[in-house]
Specification:
The chain is built from five helices and 13 strands. By secondary structure, it is an alpha+beta fold. The protein has a domain of 148 residues: Mog1/PsbP, alpha/beta/alpha sandwich (Protein Transport Mog1p, Chain A, 3-Layer(aba) Sandwich), CATH 3.40.1000. The chain has a nine-stranded antiparallel beta sheet with strand order 2-1-6-7-8-12-11-10-9, sandwiched between helices. Strands 3-4-5-13 form a four-stranded antiparallel beta sheet. One of its GO terms (cellular component) is photosystem II oxygen evolving complex.
């Protein structure tokens, strides 16, 4: 466990700032295959009021129409939904796949391999981070509880936020071990309730994190659980 706690590169690479980004470049919906699409600046504000009828649809249309995606050889986001209400993402280069809720937009955040978020509720997002490792199995770093405690205190939330690990568990899919943790991170003006799943494959340490404002957790919990459980790795 000491190797995880004392790894500056891991801390630097995996740090996920849960504060809403004031300005983010938004890629068109259905296009994680976009390399550098024409983009819009979208203001993300955690205090934005709930949707008015038709507002989300209008924003989505406005974000999609101005941009024409450029194809990438390494990453494809399919327009067809794998299950109702979700869109699948396949990254062939890094060997991972997951789904995210329909309506979320891809944004660019430095240090993250891929990020999708809701432009109305900016705390509702999913991000994937990939860094090199010489380990072959996540169990080499410790138990789900040990890794969960370390990640939420040193990596998955800013140091000025109070964190609490709610649950840590293990699952095995096609012979690969995944740890899933549930935690909350309290900032002065909001609390983010989040789920992360971590695993190792292809000489890489993968982390997928998704979450929502605590006030919307009851509504979003099932969707976010679907996102976490959909994250799987393949050999590349």
């Amino acid at each position: 466990m000491a190797s995880l706690q004392n790894s500056p590169s891991l801390h630097r690479s995996l740090f996920l700032n849960s504060l809403p980004q004031p300005h983010t470049h938004v890629a068109p919906a259905f296009s994680s295959c976009a390399r550098r699409p024409s983009s819009l600046l979208v203001r993300s504000d955690a205090s934005v009021s709930p949707d008015r009828p038709g507002r989300r649809q209008m924003l989505t249309i406005g974000l999609i129409l101005p941009s024409v995606p450029l194809l990438s050889q390494n990453s494809v986001s399919f327009a067809a939904e794998s299950k109702k209400g979700f869109i699948p993402v396949l990254d062939k280069k890094d060997g991972y796949t997951f789904v995210y809720p329909f309506g979320w937009q891809e944004v660019t955040i430095e240090g993250q391999d891929k990020v999708f978020k809701d432009v109305i509720e900016p705390l509702e997002s999913v991000s994937v981070n990939v860094i090199p490792t010489n380990k072959e199995d996540i169990k080499e770093f410790g138990s789900p509880q040990e890794i969960g405690e370390t990640l939420i205190k040193k990596v998955l939330a800013p140091p000025n936020q109070k964190t609490k690990l709610l649950e840590a568990k293990e699952r095995v899919v096609d012979g690969k071990t995944y740890y899933t943790i549930e935690f909350v991170a309290k900032a002065p003006n909001y609390t983010r309730h989040a789920l992360s799943t971590i695993s190792i494959a292809n000489g890489k340490f993968y982390t997928l994190t998704t979450g929502a404002n605590e006030r919307r957790w009851g509504k979003m919990k099932d969707k976010l659980q679907t996102v976490v459980e959909s994250f799987t790795l393949s050999n590349v």
